[in-house]
Amino acid sequence: MSQPVRICFSDIDGTIMHDPNEQDRDAELLVTPPSASGRQGAISAQTIHQVAALRSKGVMFVVITGARLSTLLMRLPYLPAADAFVCENGGRVFYPGSPLPTACPITEDAHWRDTQAAAGPTSQDGVEPKARTGALWEWYAKLAADGWVLDANGYTTSFRCHAKGGKSMAQLEALAKEAPQGLDSSFNLGAADFYPDTSGKVRAARYLMARFQARAQDCVFLCDDDNDMELAAEVGRAYLPSVTSESVRRAVAARPEHFVQATKKGTEATEEMLLAVSKDYKLL
């Protein structure tokens, strides 16, 4: 009997990449340049080899992150080879390979991007956010006028809103519930991300599961934050190299059998969880 299609989805920050300043181990690490927000990521060579081993045994690997497009593209040389790369909380989907012999060949799923109508067309990616068309950018302009601290630098189908400049977290949580029709939101790294309601990690993952003919119960997810929990609940099992929000703790408490938590920290925790995935898939 042939094996079902299996996909290991993985977030980036706090999952397969960690703060390089918090890594205290004698291991080969790759450290990325700073992103647009100034964050750097450290990933172990062992992690890259473990993902390659998973893929060599028939498990697909999909990177799925809330990071902005510019950050994903900058980090590609440091990420494990994968079957798809998803960024901006699901707004953009890319596959390895290109008809041109480029240095880092990837090709965007144009059909998926076209479904993100609230973000407007790709032709405006280089336009100042306030001047872009689409419900997402109309909301951006309104929030900017209302004094919210926003970050759209390098984003194309999403933007980030912070509880700063006199705005409280309680106000931000209330704001997230007030997003206009056609938009959705989730929290990541203590900020609210707004994006089209056709996007989101779980919707992008469903699209890819359908494309690759995989059942949710045969898939797993390496994750750590609030914006991961909807997809974590949908797949067969979720693995937590770290826990970075209270909503994740609540999810674990509600379904402890569904989550596997690392006992180690940082890049060692990632390796521990990838080993757990291999064991649960009976690959070892």
Q: Can you tag this structure with a few keywords?
A:
HAD-like_sf; catalytic activity; HAD_sf; 30% helix; four-stranded antiparallel β-sheet; Rossmann fold; Sucrose phosphatase-like domain-containing protein; alpha/beta; SPP-like_dom; eight-stranded mixed β-sheet; 2 domains; 20% strand
Question: What do you see in this structure?
Answer:
This protein has 284 residues and is an alpha/beta fold. The protein has two domains: 192 residues, HAD superfamily/HAD-like (Rossmann fold, 3-Layer(aba) Sandwich); 79 residues, no CATH class. The chain is built from nine helices and 14 strands. The strands form three sheets. The chain has an eight-stranded mixed sheet, with helices on both faces. A four-stranded antiparallel sheet has the order 8-9-11-10, with helices on one face. A two-stranded antiparallel ribbon has the order 2-3. Strand 10 and strand 11 form a beta hairpin. Helix 1 packs parallel to helix 9. It starts with 5 loop residues before the first strand and ends with a helix. The model has no long low-confidence stretch (mean pLDDT 96).
Question: Strands, helices and their partners?
Answer:
Layout: E1 6-10, E2 29-31, E3 42-44, H1 45-56, E4 59-64, H2 69-75, E5 84-87, E6 92-96, E7 106-108, H3 110-114, H4 135-145, E8 149-151, E9 159-162, H5 169-176, E10 183-188, E11 191-196, H6 201-212, E12 220-222, H7 229-234, E13 237-240, H8 246-254, E14 259-261, H9 266-280
Parallel strand pairs: 1-4, 1-12, 4-5, 12-13, 13-14
Antiparallel strand pairs: 2-3, 5-6, 6-7, 8-9, 9-11, 10-11
InterPro entries: HAD-like_sf, HAD_sf, SPP-like_dom
Protein name: Sucrose phosphatase-like domain-containing protein
Domain Sucrose phosphatase-like: 153-233
